[in-house]
Structures are given as structure tokens and as C-alpha cells.
Amino acid sequence: MRPVQIAFWIAGLAAASLAYVRLLRPRVLHWGSTLQEQEQAMPGDDILPDAVLQTTRSVTIDAPVEDVWPWLVQMGGGDRAGAYTYDWIERRLGIEIRNSDRILPEYQHLDVGQFLELNQQGTGLVVRDVATNKHLVLQWEPAQSTWTFALYPLDEGKTRLVSRNRLRSTGAMFWPTMIALMEPGSLLMERKMLLGIKERAEHLAFERHLSDNRVA
After folding, report:
1. Poorest-pLDDT segment among 158-162, 169-173, 212-216
2. What kind of fold does domain 31-215 have according to CATH?
């Protein structure tokens, strides 16, 4: 390949990288969220004050917080409810989960310090803070990142579900790995999760509405 061709490809790659960072990456990191949601403080932010990367992704759910919370609190591996995302991808990555489409009464309570195991190698999440119908703060083990889910009531019985991830830098390859693989991959999985929770909560709210009307 001639030097001119090499220079052409380098310039093209640089231009594409710059376009991604400026135009697409903000949408990858903050899918569905408003600027206010991106900038506001959330429970769990103080756990990793030295975090170098933060994502904030959100969805509006046509259901009250009481119909959203049960799906959050029962998430996890093993017999728990999964993560409402592409569970076949999770299993290929060694995370043993299967999604549930029903409320599991036996998994409707979490305690601070409780460990939610995802595989037999010890990967999982520790419950750092929990407030029923308000927020759930989890921390990955090994403890390099936190994951917060917060519920904000809206008018007309709707709920805003906001998910935030905060990560520490883990070495020289952190940024290349994040930008090239982990950020797009996390959007793929988390978008599916948020929409999965939305679908389930709205279905639950609809069934509750029908039941209330029958009783009335």
C-alpha cells in the first residue's frame, strides 16, 4: 500500500472516530435520558467518587412505581428473575440467568450486604442500598463499578426508571476496551433490560386495572 493510501485510511479512521465520540457516543452512554437526569445526583454516586465513566439511561413506563419495583427487586441469577435482557447472550458470557415474566413472591425483599450470585465463579452484585419503590444500588464484585436503579413518579400514574452505571479505570486498556466494545455492548443489553421491565410493568398495571374494575 502506497504512503498516500495509508495516509488516506488513517485520516478516514480519525474522522470516523471523532464523529463517533462527538455524535454517537453521547447517545450510547445516555440513551433515553434527559440532560437533567444525566447531571443529577443519584443514590450510590458517592460509593466510587473516583469513577471515570458514567452512563445514565432512562425509560418512561406507563405504570405506577408499585408495579415497576417488583421486577427490579427480584432480578438476579439462579432461581431469581434474570435481567429481562438477552439471557442467551448472558449465558454465553458465563452468567447463569433466565428471564421471568412473572412476579416471584419469594424474591421481593433485599437486605443491604446481600450478595446476588450470577455464576459459580463468584461473579455477582452486592446490595449497597435499597429503598422500596424508590431505588436499588448494586456494586459488582470485583468492586470496580456500581449500578443504580431509581424510580421517579410522574403524573397520570407513570414512572420514570433511571439506570446509572459508574466505573473506575482499570488500566491502560480501559478506554480502548470501553469505547470499542463495552459501551456499545452495554447499551445493547441495558436497552433491552429497560424495555423488558417497561413491558412487564405495564402488563402488570393493565392486569391490576382489569381486576380492580371487575371487583368494582
Report:
1. 212-216
2. Alpha-D-Glucose-1,6-Bisphosphate; Chain A, domain 4 (3.30.530)
State the pLDDT confidence band at 125, using cuts at 50, 70 and 90. Answer: very high
- Over residues 50-93, the pLDDT tens digits come to 999 999 999 999 999 999 999 999 999 989 999 999 988 988 88
Query: Whose CA is closest to 29, among 144, 160, 163?
Result: 163
Record the pTM.
Answer: 0.87
Task: Please state, as a whole number, how many other Cβ atoms lie within 10 Å of the Cβ of residue 216.
Answer: 5
Domain residue limits, the chain: 31-215
